[in-house]
Amino acid sequence: MGCSSSQLLDAETLEEYQDCTFFTKREIIHVFERYRQLGGKSLEDSLAMNQVLDLVELKENPFKERICLVFSQFTDGEKKGHISFEDFLDMMSVFSEGATRDVKASYAFRIYDFDGDGYLDKKDLMDTIECLCGKDGLSEYERELVADKILEEADLDGDHRLSYVEFEHVISRAPDFVNTFRIRI
Amino acid sequence: MTGTLDVKQQQQQRKRGSHVSPGRGSSHHRHELLHAAARRRSSIHNLNNLNTLQRQHVLIKEGKMALRYRKKRRRQSIAAAEAEAEAEGRPFLGCFGWTMYKLAVARQQLGAAVNVFISHPWVAGSLRAIASKAGSAVSSFFELYAFLFKLNLLFAVCWSCFVVLPMALTSVSEENNEDEGTFGDTVLGGLLAGTGSFKTSILFYGHYVSGDVQRNYDLPLAYFSVIIFTFFLTLLILVYTLGRLHRRNVIYHTLYQETRIGTQVLASWDHTITTRAGTERQHSRCTLLCKEMYNEYLRRRNRQDVPPIWGIIPAPTSTVGSFALTVLVTLVFLGGVGAGAYFLHVLQESEAGTTSYWRSLLTPFVCTASAWIIPVVQQPFRAFTTFKNSLIRMWWDVTVMFVATAGVFGTYLGTFVFLYTPNTDACWETRLGQELYRLVIFDAVFRTTIDILWLAAVPLACRFLKRSPPRVNVGALFVGAAYSQALLWIGFPFVPLLPAISLGLGIVRFYIKQAIVLYASSHPYTVIRLSQESYMKATLFTYLFSTAFGCLIIFTRPPGDCGPFQLTGSRIYHIVKQRVDDGDSTVARGWDYVFLRGAAVPVIFALILAVLYLTYRHRAKRLLVEEMKYALDREQDDFRKLLRKKRVTTHPAHLHPALAHRADGAGSSASPHSHRRTTRRKHRSHHSRHSHHSRHSRHSHHGHDHSKHGASKYGGGRATSLSPATTVAVSEIAASAITEEPARQEHKALPTIELTASSEAGAVPIELDNMTGQVADNSHQQQPYTDDAQSAYTCGLSTSTAF
Question: What family is this (chain B) (predicted)?
Answer without folding.
Answer: Belongs to the TMC family.
